Amino acid sequence: MRLDKFLSNFGFGSRKEVKSLIKQGLVSVNDKPVKNPSLKINPEVDIIKVDNEPVFYQKEFYFMLNKPSGYISATKDESYPTVLDFFINEPAYKKLFPVGRLDIDTEGLLIITTDGTLAHRLSHPKWNIEKEYFAIVNGNVNNIDFSKFEKEGIFLKKDKYQTKPFKVKVLKTNQEKSEVSITVKEGKYHIVKKIMLELGHPVLYLKRIRVGNLRLDETLNTGEYRHLTEEEIKNLKSLVNL
Ligand code: URA
Fold first, then answer.
1. 193 CB contacts (<8 Å, ≥6 apart)?
2. Quick check: CB of 191 below 6 Å from ligand 1?
3. Count of domains observed in the chain
4. 45 located within any domain
């Protein structure tokens, strides 16, 4: 791979900006300063340093973000901040994107990665990946028999759409509101809000706490993120035959 392309991919700027870094003598390959932006390097073997800091080669990057409300699950938006805004200082910033979408007002677990294959499979209906949410809903849900939805899902009249089976666990109730855990296997737009609305209990607060075998790290405050561990990456990949 060309040195300038490698550095640009890593977020050191456009090709032009990277060329300027190289021309200024700030880049070394195997501890030898280089001035040639088109120098061919092997990122898996060569040690590249920018300003004496090594640039570690990693094919793909995987993070979990505890998404706050108010951020759009996209890489760019005209009107709102996006979940990528938290990653602006990451070397792979330009290649990162969110896996699936959470609504602007939904909080919680969002995987941010460069790995297109994993992202595509985790979001594809064929793999039936479970997504678990913590929800606070309006009203008391104690009189609802949720067990039948585990077999047949529910028909959303407005959308004329039969959902896949889903699970609800009631955690707490009072007359005004209820706390539930709801696990769905589909990524349809507003699915949890639509299900609860169909049942007459609009969602007041929504937070995703699990995707497949990956749980939100509760030590992350909203707006904080961390790298996934090797184990977490392996476990996620194993869900989708990777
Ligand atoms: N279902 C919703 O209604 N909203 C989300 O953000 C995710 C699932």
1. 103, 202, 203, 206
2. yes
3. 3
4. yes
Supply the residue whose CA is at minimum distance from atom 7 of ligand 1: 102
Sheet with strand 27-29: strands edge to edge = 32-33, 27-29, 48-50, 53-55
Query: Is the residue at 219 inside a domain?
Result: no
**Residue 88's CATH number:** 3.30.70.580
Phi, psi of 131 (to 5 degrees): -125, 120
CA torsion sign for 13, 16, 18, 23 is negative
- Which pLDDT belongs to residue 212? 98
Decide whether any atom of ligand 1 lies within 6 Å of the 188 Cβ: no
Q: Does one domain contain both 135 and 121?
A: no
State the closest ligand 1 atom to the C-alpha of 105, by its place in the atom list counted from 1.
6
All residue ranges of the chain with pLDDT < 70 are 58
Are 106 and 134 part of one and the same domain?
A: no
Could you tell me if the CB of 67 is within 6 A of ligand 1?
no
- Domain holding 169, by residue range, is 130-211
Distance, CA 3 to ligand 1 centroid (Å)?
42
pTM comes to: 0.81
Strands 32-33 and 27-29: antiparallel
**Are 106 and 148 found together in one domain?**
no
